Amino acid sequence: MRDALVSAAFRLFLERGYERTTVDDIVALAGVGRRSFFRYFPSKEDVVFPDHERCLADMTAFLAAGAEDDDPVRRVCDAARLVLRMYAENPTFSVQRYRLTKKVPGLRAYELSVVWRYERALAEYLRGRYAGLRDGSLRADVIAAAVVAAHNNALRSWLRSHGRGDANAAVDHALGWVQSAFGAGPVRPAEERPEDVVVVVSRRGAPLWRVVREIESALGQG
User: Fold this and answer.
1) Domain spanning 1-48: which CATH class is it, in words?
2) What is the mean pLDDT of residues 16-38?
3) Measured between alpha carbons, how far is 25 from 23 in angstroms, rounded to an integer?
């Protein structure tokens, strides 16, 4: 019934336009009652994005199942790929939704709120991994925003091409850029990291100014 409601809704959206289609129109075409519609979708907007709640739940579970030694940046990039998989499961529907969302400001605002929820889920995971690190929260928010931006850049390019081409390759390329920029392997608190030690060898009796110059050179400050 859920799929029937989505199918009926998009048929009417394409024929009449989103604004001119009512919930009563949708349930009449699907052959069900209004109660059945609201059992699956809280509003007309939700029927346009029927899979995002499931995808968000899958993403949250995926992040929670990560191991302590996982590279956190790689983990959030892999989580973002779950969103791509949702879109790629039905390219025709995804392209139709993209076109519809571009035309209806209310749907665009709704979509942005959904994107924000994905970003928040990624950021919350990263804050947990970076807890105790200097600027840990800042790092988490910046990386989460970068992952979402890279994913959406590739996804929208694929949608604008009418779903042609390899969406996975495009998103892998975009997320690979994020990993190269921010990925740093497993995270350890600062106090557990080995200290950076520089050893300088100088001749006995060398003037102090020369010893200082050698130290500055070794530290890259000369």
Assistant:
1) mainly alpha
2) 94
3) 5
